[in-house]
From TrEMBL:
Keywords: Transferase
Stated name of the protein: Uncharacterized protein
UniProt keyword annotation of Nucleus present: no
Sequence segments annotated as region (Disordered): 1-23
Length: 126
């Protein structure tokens, strides 16, 4: 057995997770209390191979909210999200889904996108 000359291919380590995959925020408006949940699909995307946009859209579809189809269709068109969840413009991918934790009739879902093309010239111009 020759150990010294043996080279084994090692798998690269998985990327560090960075921030959490879920976050809970608590607000204290007007002496009351409310909570919001934030879901970052990046880690699940790495684990499943599904794009973050698809994970977000599928999560909203599973809720089966009444009246969601037309606004979601408009949002997908505005963001250039294809049916597979990939944005046509990779500079503005969806990266965060949030929800108010309250009764469904007062709940608000939010999808966050971010501009991935950052340069000092663009920062100065905006």
């Amino acid at each position: 057995m020759k150990k010294a000359g043996c080279s084994r291919r090692k798998r690269p380590p998985p990327p560090k997770s960075g921030r959490g995959h879920q976050t809970l925020a608590v607000e204290f408006p007007n002496g009351g209390i409310s909570a919001k949940a934030y879901f970052f699909p990046g880690m699940k995307s790495l684990a499943t191979g599904m794009p973050p946009g698809k994970l977000i859209l599928d999560s909203i579809k599973r809720l089966a909210l009444s009246g969601w189809k037309e606004p979601m269709h408009h949002l997908c068109n505005s963001l250039g999200l294809q049916d597979d969840g990939h944005p046509t413009d990779t500079a503005i991918p969806p990266f965060l889904l949030s929800a108010d934790l309250c009764t469904p009739d007062h709940c608000c879902l939010k999808i966050y996108v971010t501009d991935q093309v950052v340069s000092w010239n663009r920062v100065a111009d905006t």
